[in-house]
Amino acid sequence: MRNRTRHHITDLPSIGLPFLANIRRMLVGASPEAQLSCQTVSGTLWTTQQADGYAMTINGVTRLIRISLTDAGYGVRQWYTCPCCGKRVAKLYIGEKDIACRKCWNLHYASQSEDRLGRMRMKIRRQRYAIWGNTKHTRNLANHPYSFLKPKGMRWETFNKKVAVLVRYESAYWQAFAPVIDKICGRVDRSSTTN
Fold this sequence. Notes:
A six-stranded antiparallel sheet has the order 3-4-5-6-7-8, covered by helices on one side. By secondary structure, the chain is an alpha+beta fold. About 40% of the residues lie in helices and about 25% in strands.
C-alpha cells in the first residue's frame, strides 16, 4: 500500500459553528477581560471577546477571528472569516502555532484520497446508515441488504425503494470488486500448488 502523502482534516482539531454558539453563550454578560480556555491536542486555546469578533490564542500566537453574517431562508447564518486568507468558512483548524481554514492548511478530505472501490464502499455504508443506522452488521458489506428488517416508522414503499437502489449499487460494487478477489485467490492457488 502506498504511503499517505496528504494531510486530512482529521489530522488537526477544528472549531465549527457549534463552538461559536457555546462561546457566545458563555460570554454573555461577562466582563470584557473574560477568557475561555479549551484544551486541544495542539495546546490550550484561549478565547476572548473583541468588538468585531474573537481573539483566539494558541501557544502564544493570537489571531483575530471575525464573524460574518449571511441571510438564510430561516434567518441569519454565521461564518468564521479565516484570519489567513479572509475567506468565509464554517470551520477553522487549530495547529500548534496558528488558526486557519482547510485550504490555508492544505488539508484534504479522506474521500479525496480513496480509490474507486473505497468511494463505492463509503457510499454503500452511507446508504445503509440512512436506512438502518450505524451498527457492526450494517458496516459489514458481506451482509446482504435483504437480511435486515424494515425500520420501525418507515413506510414500506420508501423502504423498498431505498433497498432496491442499495442492492443495485452493491451489485455494481461486487462486480467491480470481483477482479480483486480473483487476483487474491489466484495468488493463494499458485502458492498452494508449489508446496
